[in-house]
User: Which sequence fits this backbone?
């Protein structure tokens, strides 16, 4: 059981909740702060003080005063009117992360919600009830309004949810599980939707997938090194220490470990003096992606534990401030950076695949074909990789450089961070496919070179991967192989592949 404090959620804990189904609760030390914050809201309502979001309209309507008898209707109307997202639904994993992170923000005690609101969010997390939340419709400022409104709609017993793989009305799910719908009171609707949890949830899942893929990219690159008789000298520790980037040094060390004892790698001058950049510069390029991942992780960890709604309540209600913590710019920039960095992993992988299949660049059978000419072998697999990396070049165009005014120009600068996070997820999915293709081609190449000459680490991985995709002895519908390898990379969690420290 993981206890939420609002300040201390880690990626390791998030991984356990999202991937291992660990349950969540509210840390008991937070209860008094939550209650104090709620009492402050109730006092404001009773005293008739005018405070944004409690007894006023929203956005351009912030100057419209709401009578006390209409405060609950105000919150309900807010959710109903804002639940207008479109497009495909967020994945169950992202939706669960969104629900969890919204609860974690409210636990901090700055938002003025009742304890029951947070408990309802965690009930959804623990029972694995997934509100149907469309991906499109957030500008990434004023909070992820549309996506989070769909989340809040489900808490109210409305809209649709997915439970045990089945889409159903929330009312039916609540009846099945004997759950009581939430009736929102003053400020609670605004507190649920004024936040960055859609972009942060998508970003956190993207980061975890990107980290795993980056480790997998290294062993696949090592396999390609063997398939092409790559020169190991370029990975010598002294070269990388001379430049000084820790991530570059660490990448080179992991590649050396993967290739330790290999009889398929060469020394400079044995076959050729230098390798092409896609082999020789693996530590520099992959290492730069690791630098980016470090930056992205740092920003996400802050945002995962941040108070991002508006207004925020301090000093037991004596200070209530309208600000802009809902603005997603920090995450928007991080997501754009993540897309670019992962896209580059795909770019260099596709160039290695080209070197594996192009007979003008190696001494292997053309296109790794079992019968060149009669059979095309891996020719079109490289086409697919090329198409994917080109698609990523459009997806990696920064979303954060765009803005468009909304709410009658009251909200005149927005982050587009949720678009950036969605693009990052798609880029990562594409790059995983690119590495599935490189892995298939690299395995075929080392098979031609001599399986028995491989390093112990790569040979072990080769054997496991061959259980997924068999040797190419004749042409077949290779989309099946790509799908199988991609699914394996998406699911596999092998310590000797990743060689990583636990997520912090």
Assistant:
């Amino acid at each position: 059981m993981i206890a939420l404090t609002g300040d201390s959620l880690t990626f390791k804990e998030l991984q356990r909740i999202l991937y291992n189904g660990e349950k969540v609760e509210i840390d008991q030390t937070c209860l008094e702060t939550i209650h104090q914050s709620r009492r402050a809201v109730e006092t404001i309502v009773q005293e008739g003080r005018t405070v944004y979001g409690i007894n006023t309209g929203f956005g351009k309507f912030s100057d419209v005063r709401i009578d006390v008898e209409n405060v609950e209707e105000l919150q309900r109307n807010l959710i109903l009117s804002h639940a207008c997202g479109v497009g495909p639904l967020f994945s169950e994993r992202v939706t669960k992360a969104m629900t969890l992170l919204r609860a974690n923000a409210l636990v901090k005690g700055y938002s003025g919600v009742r304890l029951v609101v947070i408990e309802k969010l965690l009930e959804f997390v623990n029972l694995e009830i997934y509100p149907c939340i469309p991906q499109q419709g957030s500008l990434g400022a004023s909070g992820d309004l549309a996506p989070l409104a769909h989340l809040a709609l489900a808490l109210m017993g409305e809209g649709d949810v997915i439970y045990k793989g089945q889409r159903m009305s929330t009312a039916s799910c609540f009846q099945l599980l004997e759950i009581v719908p939430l009736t929102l009171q003053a400020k609670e609707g605004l507190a649920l939707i004024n936040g960055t949890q859609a972009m942060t949830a998508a970003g956190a899942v993207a980061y975890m997938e990107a980290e795993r893929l980056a480790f997998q990219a290294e062993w696949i690159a090592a396999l390609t090194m063997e398939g092409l008789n790559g020169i190991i000298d370029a990975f010598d520790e002294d070269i990388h220490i001379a430049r000084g980037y820790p991530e570059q040094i660490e990448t080179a060390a992991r590649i050396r470990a993967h290739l330790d004892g290999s009889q398929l790698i060469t020394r400079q001058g044995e076959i050729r003096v230098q390798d092409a950049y896609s082999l020789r510069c693996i530590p520099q390029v992959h290492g730069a992606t690791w630098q980016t991942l470090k930056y992205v992780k740092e920003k996400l960890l802050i945002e995962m534990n941040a108070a991002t709604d508006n207004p925020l309540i301090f000093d037991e209600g004596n200070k209530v401030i309208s600000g802009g913590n809902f603005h997603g710019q920090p995450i928007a920039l991080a997501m754009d950076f993540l897309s670019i960095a992962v896209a580059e992993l795909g770019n260099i992988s596709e160039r290695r695949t080209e070197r594996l299949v192009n007979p003008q660049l190696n001494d292997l059978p053309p296109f790794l074909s079992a019968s060149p000419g009669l059979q095309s072998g891996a020719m079109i697999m490289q086409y697919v990789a090329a198409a994917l990396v080109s698609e990523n070049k459009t997806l990696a165009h920064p979303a954060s450089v765009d803005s468009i005014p909304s709410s009658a120009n009251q909200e005149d600068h927005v982050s587009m961070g949720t678009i950036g996070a969605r693009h990052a997820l798609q880029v990562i999915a594409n790059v995983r496919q690119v590495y599935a293709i490189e892995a298939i081609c690299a395995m075929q190449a080392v098979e031609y070179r001599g399986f028995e000459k491989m390093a112990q680490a790569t040979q072990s991985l080769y054997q496991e991967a061959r259980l997924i995709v068999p040797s190419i002895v004749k042409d077949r519908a290779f989309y099946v192989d790509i799908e199988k390898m991609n699914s394996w990379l998406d699911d596999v969690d092998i310590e000797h592949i990743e060689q990583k420290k636990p997520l912090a």
